[in-house]
Amino acid sequence: MIISLSSFAPRKRMAADAKGYLYYYCIKEEYNAIDSNVNNPYNKDYTGSYFVQMTNLSIQVMDSLHSYYDRSIKAYRGIPKESSYDATANMACLSCRELCEAKETRKYIKRIIK
Prior knowledge:
There is one protein chain. Helix 1 packs across helix 3 (about 60-70) and helix 1 packs antiparallel against helix 4 (about 90-100). The chain is mainly alpha-helical. It is built from five helices and no strands. Helix content is about 65%, strand content about 0%.
């Protein structure tokens, strides 16, 4: 019993890190889809390097999360209401929350970190 509990904790941590990395990547990509100006603050966010340097996530897992984002984000992307006449209106963070908290995403992350 102790062995199974001790092996569960690292996987749980890796799942949390994978989800955090997906949040980072999604938000960055969603804002870059709106405006990819390299001087914008979201392009100066170095959260991604934290996941590379400070976690046990492999590059393969991170690449897999990039692919998952590309395949899945359209199903979760929020669109501002028609009454919004602001051409730059968006729901980038909500879209990322919907993607990252989805049941399908939890299953996917669980599968790739095994």
